[in-house]
C-alpha cells in the first residue's frame, strides 16, 4: 500500500458538488492499494500514519514531536489508485501495479474501519468517484509512505 500524507489546517472532498468528507486540523491521506497487499501491509501503514510525529509540540519551538492522535486531529482518507502510476516507459502512466478496483475498495474500507476502531475521527471521499479535493497544507508537510519499504 502507498499513502501520501499531508498535514492540513483543513481539507474537504466533494463529489458532484456535495461535500462527502471534511476535517479541520489533521491529516489528508491519499491511499492506494497495490497487487498483493493484505492485512499486514494495511496494519503497518495505518500504524505509521497514526504514529507520524509531524505536529508541533506544546513548547512552541516548531519541533514536530506529536502525532495526529496526540493533537486530537482527524483523517480525511481519499482513495488514490494513481499512486501506483508507473511512468518508466512512455508518457502515459501504467497502473498495472494497482490492486483491481473491487479488491482495492475492500482494502480502502478496511483501512478506514481500522482507523476508526483506533478512536480517530475519519472522513472519506467516495471510492471510484470523480472527486474534487481542497486543502490547506500546513507547513507544508507532505510524507510519502510505501509498505514495500517496510520489508
Give the low-pLDDT segments: none
Q: Into how many domains do the coordinates divide?
A: 1
CATH fold topology: D-tyrosyl-trna(Tyr) Deacylase, Chain: A
Highest-level CATH class: Alpha Beta
Describe this structure in words.
This protein is of the alpha/beta class and 151 residues long. It has one domain: D-tyrosyl-trna(Tyr) Deacylase, Chain: A, CATH 3.50.80. Strands 1, 2, 3, 6, 7 and 8 form a six-stranded mixed β-sheet that branches. Strands 4-5 form a two-stranded antiparallel sheet.
Keywords for this entry:
two-stranded antiparallel ribbon; D-tyrosyl-trna(Tyr) Deacylase, Chain: A; about 40% strand; globular; alpha/beta; 8 strands; six-stranded mixed sheet; about 150 residues; single chain; about 20% helix; 2 helices
Strand and helix layout:
Elements lengths: L1 E14 L2 E6 L2 E7 L6 H13 L3 E2 L7 E3 L7 E6 L21 H17 L3 E4 L6 E16 L5
Helix pairs in contact: 1-2
Briefly summarize what is shown:
This protein has helices at 39-51, 101-117; strands at residues 2-15, 18-23, 26-32, 55-56, 64-66, 74-79, 121-124, 131-146. The chain has 151 residues and is α/β, with parallel strands linked by helices. It has one domain: D-tyrosyl-tRNA(Tyr) deacylase (D-tyrosyl-trna(Tyr) Deacylase, Chain: A, 3-Layer(bba) Sandwich), CATH 3.50.80.10.
